[in-house]
Design a protein that fits this description.
Keywords: Methyltransferase, Transferase. The chain is globular and about 40 Å long. With 197 residues, it is of the alpha/beta class. The chain has one domain: Rossmann fold (3-Layer(aba) Sandwich), CATH 3.40.50.150. Strands 1, 2, 3, 4, 5, 6, 7 and 8 form an eight-stranded mixed β-sheet that branches. Helices cover 27% and strands 27% of the residues.
Length: 197
């Protein structure tokens, strides 16, 4: 849809995902506070990486569940190790596919991707898989670096505009539910399923 797909960040980028400045640079806790979570929420962190978001959200859904969905084996192993170290029983590590998130249909209150959507090799197929996995009133949240900001020193292929994200998601059965601009360098774009699909 007029966009070049970025290359996936490799497991060598794990230290960047866990950098000490990330909480402040991205205001991650504010993003989590705005995810509309309750203690029973069932959530999927798609492209969970090292679990930077997964394990923070696990504390917010003690009676629910969070699926840490990851494609790369080294990250899957790291996620399992961290889950065990933290003793979090509501975290389920899932080996995802290039076209599927491998969680049950109609099970999720929220699916989210943090700087991941622009790297999906098969975005249309993944959006269809997410659509199936969401409950009828489930939401999909994308946090993406703002391509509209020329001063943001992130590679162009790793940034997205609101217009491009909305165009792609609307073509795959989603409509924009909530857009917020409170994050320093990322878009906060929450989508819901459309009834027509």
């Amino acid at each position: 849809m007029g966009r070049e797909i970025a290359r996936v960040i490799g497991t060598g980028g794990g230290s960047w995902l866990d950098r000490s400045t990330r909480l402040e640079e991205e205001n991650s806790l504010r993003a989590i506070d705005n995810m509309l979570l309750n203690p029973q929420s069932v959530v999927a962190d798609i492209g969970a990486g090292t679990g930077f978001y997964t394990f923070k959200i696990a504390e917010k859904v003690p009676k629910g569940k969070i699926y840490a969905v990851e494609l790369q084996d080294a990250f899957v192993s790291e996620l399992k190790k961290r889950r065990q170290e933290l003793g979090l029983r509501n975290v389920e590590v899932v080996k995802g596919g290039e076209k599927n998130i491998n969680v049950p249909d109609a099970s999720l209150d929220l699916a989210f991707m943090v700087d991941v959507y622009h790297e999906l090799e098969y975005p249309q197929e993944m959006l269809q898989a997410i659509y199936r996995a969401l409950k009828p009133d489930g939401k999909l949240l994308l946090l993406e670096y703002r391509a509209e900001d020329p001063n943001l020193s992130i590679r162009e292929l790793h940034k997205m505009t609101v217009e491009q994200v909305t165009k792609e998601l609307e073509a795959n059965g989603f409509k924009l539910f909530r857009r917020e601009d409170f994050l320093p360098i990322q878009h906060f774009l929450m989508f819901e399923k459309t009834e027509e699909k």
